[in-house]
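Notebook entry, structure prediction.
Reason for the run: the old model in the group folder had no record of what sequence produced it. Starting over properly, with the input documented here first.
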Amino acid sequence: MKTRLVFWLVILITLVSVYIDLPRVLPMGVEKPIFDLQWGNFRFYRDLEVKKGIDLAGGSHLVFEAEVENLSAEDKQTALESVKTNIERRVNLFGVSEPMIQTARFQDDYRLIVELPGISNINQAIDLIGQTAQLDFRTLSEEATASATLDDFLPTGLTGKDLARASVQFDPNSGQPVVALKFNDSGREKFAQITEENVDKPVAIFLDVFPITAPIVREPIENGEAVISGNFALDEAKQLTIQLNAGALPVPIKLVEQKNVGATLGEESVQKSIQGGLIGLGMVILFMALYYGYLGVLANLGLIIYGLITLALYKVIPVTLTLPGIAGFVLSIGMAVDANILVFERMKEEVRAGKPASLAMELGFGRAWDSIRDANVCTLITCFILFNPFNWSFLNTSGMVRGFALTLGLGVILSLFTGVVVTRTLLRQLAFFKREKVKK
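New structure, fully documented this time:
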């Protein structure tokens, strides 16, 4: 009963994957519905299209250098991360699909690498990205009503130049994260006057003419040190701190490298990569069928299911595919049947030892699992290091390398599922069909 339940679950997952893998526009002009789900403030939207990186879709590769010579050593990295966050927001507003933005440091050079797939107006993007962040504090005008808009907030003269630093702290009473502001000498006097005139009123903080927060003033603050509280999660408090420091530590950036990638090159690369992948897949399928017979046929069926699920995940996550990413997927195809080969060879050994076929199958999966697990865990550790999720500076991995690590890592995890769970379920179900045929 359990095997049959898993069998139908595998079929359900496969059918859902097939639906996701289908093109957006189906035959006869029928357009496939997209994922657009919303629960309160959370929205999950996917257009179920494959996202292409700059080397496949074409676009621009830009390298900016941050001028941090006048900052202290401890402020340089903070300033660079703040500029990165500011550029990410500007690029998203520009409407670039799946941009890649990362920081890099080589000796005393602090740089930002920006890749803009499919961008058409490169000069406008450069002008937008290259601006220094502008932070300013604004208060409501006297004519503002309860339904105030952004136009009702007026500049006060208090800007990012008056803010010394923003940092994350913790409320000693509640333990909740808060954002602490510290103003310099000129900012202390301005902020004291603003808070004195706006008690129980909002003081909005704008970055690049967009509001990032609007806390309510509870009392006049004369010492130049304020705290913004509001039941922040730790990540939210960190994000707000980075945005504030983007304006408090104004860092000019200059364009030092620009490289354009043509879409024609991307299309040609995709075609050759697909051809290579299909040839490799065909050779694997042929080898498994000829060498292992019906066992190989079942393994091939699991491999097809693996491919369908993998492509569906690429669309749902979504994964931005690059040429190295496709290489990671092609490499994972061979690893997807590696587990089956280990299992089948163990099954042969058990059969030669005189075990019944059904018992040999179970023993084969059980005794091959240790080897399968250890080999795949080692590969996953390598993928983790290459992906560099914590942005360790000593690794300095590029977006292309991270794309390879992501697709290979996903492929390894899915190969464990299809190679062990799917193939094992198919074998058990085949044995069940054989038993039913003998009874009849």
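Summary: Residues 180 and 227 are 4 Å apart (CA to CA).
The old model has been moved to the deprecated folder.
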